[in-house]
Structures are given as structure tokens and as C-alpha cells.
Design a protein that fits this description.
By secondary structure, the chain is α+β, with helices and mostly antiparallel strands. About 35% of the residues lie in helices and about 30% in strands. It contains 7 helices and 16 strands. The strands form 4 sheets. It has a 6-stranded antiparallel beta barrel with strand order 4-5-8-7-6-9. A 4-stranded antiparallel sheet has the order 1-13-12-11, covered by helices on one side. A 4-stranded antiparallel sheet has the order 3-10-15-14, with no helix packed on it. The longest helix has about 35 residues, at about 65-95.
Length: about 300
């Protein structure tokens, strides 16, 4: 029994070694036939694939933001005027006592109070709307609010059960109206009560914004940064047959090597391939099905000489 088991083990090892040593499958096709079949190759570009996460986006009411911005603009104007008044009264009091010291001190106190109000309103931008709005310039914020008011932009908050850390891009699913891309501004200041997570704030611009009313909730897809390295190929370059997924790589003018692919995933620009292809390799992007047919075609058996 032991000798039989040992013999089976040796045969299995020999079979595995033979399979590992098997040369890659190569398909030969004359250049004239390639031209007729439309066989063409392209260098496979390097790419990275990151898994998508399901989320949802809620369209925010921009009125509180617009109100806070208006209060800030008014307070900034009042602070500028009071600072000028404080400087004038201080100068007059020091020059010839035309203005009493008490009046100059009152003007200075008013200037400090107005400046503190401006600082408070700017902090409220960060506390209520996130750090992105606190650091945003007055001109940019005013432009955003004008676009929100005109229906040319929509402000959204994005949340996901798995969190939003490391998110590199957000896409909204608008159903029959297609998809909308979100320009991320940064993290929200308040957490979601149901998911117990900190969401992201972003802006949808262009025609899709007109279809996003305040209070709407739409499905979203999150794309994480980084991701797995690989290459991106057109869908027509990939063949699926016999339970395998593969593509063809040109070896020389008349030969193509079949490569088994791994980690194939759909991307907007084609198919991401994690293994089996290297960046820069000449992959068959047109005529791959013809190569597959040529590979599967029965080979003519050699005829024996008859005396």
C-alpha cells in the first residue's frame, strides 16, 4: 500500500511539474490574414482599480448658508467702518483734543466688538458647514452661493455605512437622468445620527444640479483612492471561453501569445486587469475573437505517403 501511494504521489508531482513547465499557448497568423481580420494591438496602459462602495447623498438646503454669508458680509462692512472711525477719533484725540478720550475709547471698543462678530461668523462657517467653508475665500463662497441660487449647482452631503475615509470620488445615480459627478469639498462638521459617521460635503454642477431639489436623497457610489495596480484594456480585448478569461499579446509580426487574466473588473474606460498583462505590452484590442477562432480551429492532420 505504501509503495502504491508513493508511486501515485510521484506521478502527481511529475504531472504538476509538467503542467508548470508547459510553454504558453502561441497562435500563429500570417500578416496578410491579420490585416483581413482587422487584428490590431495597443500598448496596455497602467491603471489602478479601487472597489466601489454604495452610499447615499442628501441634497442640502442652501438658505442657511446664504443667510450666514450675508450676515458675514454685513458684519465685515460694519467692522471696516468702525475700524476707520476708531482710527479717526484716536487721531483727533491725540492731535488737539477735538474729540474726547472717552469718545475715542468707545470707538475703539466698538471696532473690537465688530471685529469679534466677524471672527465669530467665520468660525460658524467651519462649525456648521465644515472646515472647507471656513478656509474658502469670500469671492469663491459668494460665487458658489450664486450658482446654488441660480440652479447651476447643488450642495450635497454623502454618507455611507462603511464610512467615507479615503474616498477619492463620488458619483450620483439619477436614474433615467443618468449620473452626476460630485466635486468634493471636504468632511461635514456634523455626524449622521443613524449611521454614526461623518459625511462628506460636495457640489454637483451643470445641468444635473437643476434636477436635485433640497431634501432629495439619491443613491451614490464611492471610489476609494489608491487601489490595486494593473492595466486597462478595451472590452473587446478580453475573451471568455471554457471557464477562463484571457487576452492575446503580440510576440512578433506573426505570433500571438494567449495570456490568462486575473482580477478582471469593469471600469468606465474598459476592463481592469490585475494579473496576466504588464503595462506597455502590445495587447490585441481588435480581432481577438478571430484569434480565438483560429486557435480553436481543427488542425489538419499530416497525410502519410502511400506507396
Amino acid at each position: 500500500m505504501k509503495s502504491a501511494a508513493l508511486a501515485l504521489l510521484i506521478l502527481a508531482a511529475a504531472g504538476a511539474a509538467q503542467a508548470m513547465a508547459a510553454p504558453p499557448l502561441v497562435v500563429a497568423l500570417p500578416t496578410e490574414v491579420q490585416r483581413k481580420l482587422g487584428v490590431a494591438t495597443e500598448a496596455a496602459p497602467a491603471a489602478r482599480h479601487s472597489g466601489a462602495t454604495t452610499a447615499f447623498a442628501r441634497v442640502l438646503d442652501p438658505v442657511p448658508l446664504a443667510t450666514l454669508d450675508a450676515d458675514l458680509v454685513a458684519a465685515a462692512g460694519a467692522a471696516q467702518a468702525s475700524q476707520a472711525e476708531a482710527a479717526r477719533t484716536r487721531s483727533l484725540a491725540a492731535a488737539d483734543a477735538t474729540v474726547s478720550a472717552k469718545t475715542a475709547e468707545a470707538a475703539a471698543a466698538q471696532a473690537r466688538a465688530d471685529a469679534a462678530k466677524v471672527a465669530l461668523l467665520r468660525r460658524r462657517l467651519g462649525l456648521e458647514w465644515g472646515p472647507a467653508f471656513m478656509t474658502m475665500s469670500d469671492v469663491r463662497r459668494a460665487d458658489l452661493i450664486a450658482r446654488l441660487a441660480g440652479g447651476r449647482a447643488a450642495l450635497v452631503r454623502v454618507d455611507a455605512a462603511s464610512g467615507t475615509a479615503g474616498v477619492d470620488g463620488v458619483t450620483l445615480d439619477l436614474g433615467p437622468d443618468g449620473k452626476a459627478f460630485v466635486q468634493m469639498l471636504g468632511p461635514a462638521r456634523t455626524g449622521d445620527a443613524r449611521l454614526m459617521s461623518v459625511g462628506l460635503l460636495g457640489v454637483v454642477s451643470g445641468p444635473p444640479a437643476a434636477r436635485l431639489g433640497a431634501g432629495m436623497t439619491v443613491p451614490a457610489t464611492l471610489a476609494a483612492g489608491g487601489g490595486q495596480p494593473g492595466v486597462l484594456v478595451p472590452r473587446g480585448a478580453v475573451i471568455r471561453a471554457g471557464g477562463e478569461t484571457y487576452a492575446y499579446v503580440r510576440k512578433d509580426a506573426g505570433r500571438f501569445e494567449r495570456r490568462t487574466l486575473g482580477g478582471v473588473a469593469a471600469e468606465p474606460g474598459g476592463l481592469f486587469v490585475a494579473s496576466g498583462l504588464r503595462p506597455g505590452e502590445p495587447v490585441v484590442v481588435s480581432g481577438a475573437a478571430a484569434l480565438h477562432a483560429a486557435e480553436a480551429a481543427p488542425k489538419a492532420a499530416p497525410t502519410a505517403d502511400v506507396d
